[in-house]
Design brief:
single chain; 3% strand
Length: 230
Amino acid sequence: MANPPGPSATAISAAFPAPPPFYKSFTPANLASLASLQESNPSLTANDLPSELRNLLPPAPPAPKQQYRTFGETHEISAPSTDDPPKEPPNPHRLLQTTRQLLLTFLSLTHALATEPETWAPKWDEMRALFSEAHAIVNEYRPHQARETLIHMMEEQVERCKSETKACKEACARVRGVLEEVEKGQGESQPEMSIMQTEESGVRGKGEKIKASTEKEVWAVIEQEVGKFD
């Protein structure tokens, strides 16, 4: 009976690689310890920290002409040059031509693997060069993509401002209509108010006359019974 595969075989055959082991260093306790050490000494380096805290500091950026590995490939870092001539605008026909050439090279590679497997290396190198060229052509569209994205965002902002301005104008028109209706209602009710005020003043004057005559009659009776006051 065959032995079960070990952890190394499982890691190699996994669809996705395991996370790097230093992720275990990012704990709340370690982060708090690093913050306290940086407060006491802001110029700390990774060599000045204990082993469990060294992974918390980001590494320094690589220097120009330095090499790094990614996906099994070695790349060299080159600083951008300001003396490069201006690039031509990207040509879509060039990208289409590169894509078609990639398909033809892939067919040639499959044919070579089926008939003469030992001749696969030149076709593979040609495909890698074509992929790099296609990647460079796609990167030439980045400024165009950023410009078009910015234009789209600005158009959305303009449309939003227009809709908000239209809503404000409609709200102002509704408010003006309500104010005009209120003003018209006050103008129509003003004659009625004047009539009511006239009637009320007449009733008040009549009541005052009745009260004055009543008081006179009372004083006349008192004078008859008691006599006139000197």
